[in-house]
């Protein structure tokens, strides 16, 4: 039997061979491994099984343990496993119970020679679990906070009527205790309860098989039964935000179709749509994982982890898009300077590495004996720092873009004000979750706030870039075809646009009348001279060099008027007389 218990101890057993490890908290643990391997892993309260017919080498077994630990089961109602250790005190699991509605059922078996083992129930008051866990106290001292009158101490013996234990003998005349009982919890509020096992008098340590079921509702209550109290409403909130993200995707696709028809579907908008899709799919995966968890109390841990990864990828791409837009990419320039490109690439690599490290750290190093927020770790604090650096870079870039293109202030000032709040909101939520929000409501509160912040960020950018007549903030005025021509031209220039600096247009105009009444063209019919009219070549056409030479002899145009609102509400080349608004 290959049994892995994550908590105070980690244990592996092998027939006929013994190994010695120092794996947790500086304490040595003896390990056994059976010839027929079966994994029964308890990670944050769930189980994971896999069978192997051939015993791999020991080093390969440890590698498999690391791989399996990357797919932890979600923290929840049902755990089972085998614990064997030379320690006299060991942590099993934790759960956030409701007052009176919380139910704790256990089934424990252990040999009589290890008697008497005791089941310990600590709660989250400062003088209880925090006072004993990782405190360096011995076994006897760790029992002192428990109160027998509160049924926090259960002796697993047939002499204790409340333990539900009886002596059972097998055919080989080996005797062991089998204990099966249920407890309910009554307290002033929701509390975290921590389950441990101990036998301070034992010279052999601890050895037991256990099955533990923890619930917070009546059987069949989909929304409450299997969920820890701190997870209540997470599924409902995820469903709501999934629906909202689907609506955002729908409107973003409509805008993308419009922009593509007008040759204004730039890379930055494509990045925005990609981020939005990843967020939508990530939330969908979380909905599926929590829905399955509501049915069986185990869920789909791999699907849940995938959803969290997709949400992280969505944030990374969205931050990249914001930094590119702040630098004016596809809005005031067609390419970044080499130095800016290198810096941005290195920064985004660091951002991706920080997130990858965070997830690996969470899977490998988070102690289930502590109620920790995802970002309460060195990689988490690194992400907070990078987010603040991204905010400073964002503001710095917007400042210099506006300095060179003041006519874009309508778009960039709106962008700067809102996304300054967006960048700061992430670190603020992390700090509040780590140091202010109580543990028993933290997960559901942070989940709702994080989804809200992400949704608002996508929605505001969608509004700012909508190609609508009422949108004075619309940022794009150079078409994608023009950028392609500039990239292939000899000097990166077409008309008054250059790859490194587009022409100055606050809002791309549509064939304005030039107020150059002094410039006339010859009359072909009797009457007063007619003002000279023409369409700016750099906006609507890609002219050949010969055409540009001929146009060079025509009178120059004044800068486009800021009050023109007709562009980009028509496709390129449509007759002007059909577009009067």
Automatic annotation (TrEMBL):
Keywords: Glycoprotein, Membrane, Transmembrane, Transmembrane helix. Its main location: membrane. Residues 510-534, 546-581 are annotated as: Disordered. The chain crosses the membrane at residues 239-257, 269-289, 309-330, 342-361, 381-399, 411-436. Residues 79-210 form the GPR180-like N-terminal domain. Residues 244-461 form the GPR180/TMEM145 transmembrane domain. It is a multi-pass membrane protein. The keyword Isomerase does not apply. It holds the Pfam family TMEM145_N. It is found in: Membrane. One of its GO terms (biological process) is response to pheromone. GO terms for cellular component: membrane. It comes from the Eukaryota. PANTHER family: INTIMAL THICKNESS RECEPTOR-RELATED, TRANSMEMBRANE PROTEIN 145. This is Intimal thickness related receptor IRP domain-containing protein. It comes from Darwinula stevensoni.
């Amino acid at each position: 039997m290959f049994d892995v218990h994550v908590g105070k101890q980690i244990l592996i057993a092998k027939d006929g061979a013994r190994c010695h490890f120092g794996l947790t908290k500086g304490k040595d643990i003896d390990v056994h491994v059976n010839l027929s391997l079966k994994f029964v892993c308890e990670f944050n309260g769930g189980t994971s099984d896999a069978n192997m017919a051939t015993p791999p080498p020991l080093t390969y077994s440890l590698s498999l343990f690391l791989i399996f630990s990357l797919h932890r089961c979600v923290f929840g109602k049902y755990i089972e496993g085998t614990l064997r250790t030379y320690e006299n005190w060991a942590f099993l699991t934790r759960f956030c119970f409701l007052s009176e509605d919380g139910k704790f059922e256990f089934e424990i078996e252990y040999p009589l020679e290890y008697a008497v083992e005791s089941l310990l129930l600590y709660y989250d008051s400062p003088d209880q679990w925090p006072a004993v866990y990782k405190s360096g106290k011995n076994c006897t001292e760790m029992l002192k906070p428990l109160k027998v009158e509160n049924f926090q101490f259960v002796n697993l013996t047939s002499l204790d009527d409340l333990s539900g234990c009886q002596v059972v003998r097998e055919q080989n005349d080996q005797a062991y205790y089998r204990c099966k009982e249920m407890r309910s919890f009554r307290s002033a509020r929701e509390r975290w309860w921590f389950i441990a096992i101990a036998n301070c008098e034992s010279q052999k340590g601890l050895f037991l098989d256990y099955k533990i079921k923890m619930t917070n509702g009546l059987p069949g209550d989909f929304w409450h039964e299997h969920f820890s109290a701190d997870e209540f409403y997470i599924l409902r909130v995820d469903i709501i935000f999934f629906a909202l993200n689907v609506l955002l995707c729908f409107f973003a696709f409509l805008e993308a179709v419009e922009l593509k028809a007008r040759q204004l579907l730039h890379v930055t908008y494509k990045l925005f749509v990609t981020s939005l899709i990843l967020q939508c799919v990530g939330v969908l995966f979380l909905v599926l994982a929590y829905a399955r968890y509501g049915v069986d109390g185990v869920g789909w841990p791999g699907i849940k982890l995938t959803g969290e990864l997709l949400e992280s990828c969505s944030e990374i791409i969205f931050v990249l898009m914001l930094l590119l837009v702040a630098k004016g990419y596809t809005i005031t320039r067609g390419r970044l300077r080499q130095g800016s490109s290198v810096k941005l690439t290195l920064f985004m690599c660091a951002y991706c590495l920080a997130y990858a490290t965070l997830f690996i750290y969470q899977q490998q190093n988070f102690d289930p004996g502590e109620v920790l927020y995802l970002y309460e770790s060195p990689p988490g604090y690194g992400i907070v720092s990078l987010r603040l650096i991204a905010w400073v870079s964002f503001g710095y870039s917007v400042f210099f873009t506006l300095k060179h293109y003041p006519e874009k202030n309508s778009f960039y000032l709106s962008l700067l004000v809102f996304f300054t709040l967006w960048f700061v909101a992430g670190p603020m939520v992390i700090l509040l979750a780590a140091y202010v929000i109580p543990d028993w409501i933290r997960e559901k509160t942070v989940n709702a706030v994080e989804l809200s912040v992400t949704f608002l960020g996508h929605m505001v950018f969608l509004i700012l870039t909508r190609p609508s007549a009422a949108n004075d903030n619309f940022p794009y005025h150079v078409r994608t075809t023009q950028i392609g021509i500039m990239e292939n031209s000899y000097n990166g220039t077409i008309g008054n646009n250059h790859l490194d600096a587009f022409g100055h247009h606050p809002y791309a105009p549509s064939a304005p009348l030039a107020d150059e009444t002094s410039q006339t063209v010859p009359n072909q019919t009797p009457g007063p001279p007619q003002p000279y009219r023409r369409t700016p070549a750099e906006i609507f056409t890609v002219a050949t060099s010969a055409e540009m030479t001929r146009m060079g002899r025509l009178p120059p145009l004044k800068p486009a008027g800021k009050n023109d609102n007709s562009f980009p509400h028509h496709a390129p080349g449509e007759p002007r007389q059909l577009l009067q608004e």
